[in-house]
Design a protein that fits this description.
Blueprint: H1 3-16, H2 23-28, H3 36-49, E1 55-60, E2 63-68, H4 73-77, H5 89-101, H6 106-113, H7 119-128, E3 131-136, E4 144-148, H8 150-156, H9 175-185, H10 195-200
Antiparallel strand pairs: 1-2, 3-4
């Protein structure tokens, strides 16, 4: 099989796949006769060949897939007018904190947000597949440690946590990721309130989070109050999804 034939096989498999395909699965197309570096090189060539079209080949946390480009989304949305549910500010702020501070306990989240975190907030994130429990901290009560999932990275079009951009001085996301976050999760990009600043200003203590129901009027961010805490060491994603340089 020559290079062109191998690329046609990869292209066909990816275009018909329902989910991102990891490198190990793509190698099975060739009975593992092609090594990982060769398959990555072929995928990079395919990605270049599709540049400038309405479809692009991308590498995500869980593998490679073809997807529509951002420029095509306004047109495709006309075929699917139903909008995804918008999540409450409590849900999105909690997700942002977990993304930038993981692994984080419920106590960590409450300390940063300055409010009690409802169990239903965390359940909403777990049910959506964005957050999962990865262990327990060796501390009194052994609180659960929460982290984001590969599904979260896939939904944002990222390969690993290292691709999350640094927050701005005010806790704002860069415009490109804020726009992607709004598209995927139905939210805007306002910064998370700083409880320390509110206390210094003499503001009353906020009430605990309400039950997280979809709210079209809210506009929370993926800003992380991680601006108020040391940056964590972020684990890398699956090497099988990494393209070649």
């Amino acid at each position: 099989m020559n290079t062109q034939e191998a690329k046609i096989v990869l292209e066909t498999a990816l275009l018909t796949a329902q989910q991102p395909m990891p490198l190990a699965e793509l190698r099975r197309l060739f009975a593992d006769e092609l090594n990982a570096d060769t398959v990555r090189a072929l995928l990079d060539e395919l990605r270049v060949q599709w540049t400038g079209r309405g479809i692009e080949l991308v590498a995500l946390a869980s593998g490679w897939r073809f997807q529509s480009t951002a420029a095509m989304r306004p047109y495709l949305d006309r075929l699917n007018p139903e909008k995804a549910p918008k999540y409450s500010r409590a849900v999105l702020e909690t997700l942002a904190i977990v993304a930038y501070r993981q692994p984080a306990t419920r106590g960590d989240i409450e300390e940063i947000r300055g409010v009690t975190v409802s169990s239903q907030v965390l359940k909403a994130l777990e049910d959506r597949g964005w957050v999962e429990t990865i262990g327990h901290r060796e501390a009194p009560g052994r609180p659960a440690l929460f982290a984001t999932t590969r599904q979260f990275l896939d939904d944002l079009g990222l390969r690993s946590l290292e691709e999350l951009p640094a927050l701005g001085a005010t806790g704002q996301l860069p415009p490109q990721l804020a726009a992607e976050f709004e598209l995927q999760f139905g939210t805007g990009a306002a910064p998370i309130p700083d409880p320390a600043a509110a206390a210094a200003a003499g503001a009353p203590a906020p009430a605990p989070d309400p039950v997280p129901t979809p709210d079209p009027a809210t506009a929370p961010p993926l800003a992380a109050a991680a601006a108020a805490a040391p940056a964590p060491s972020l684990p890398a994603g699956d090497d099988s999804a990494q393209p070649t340089a």
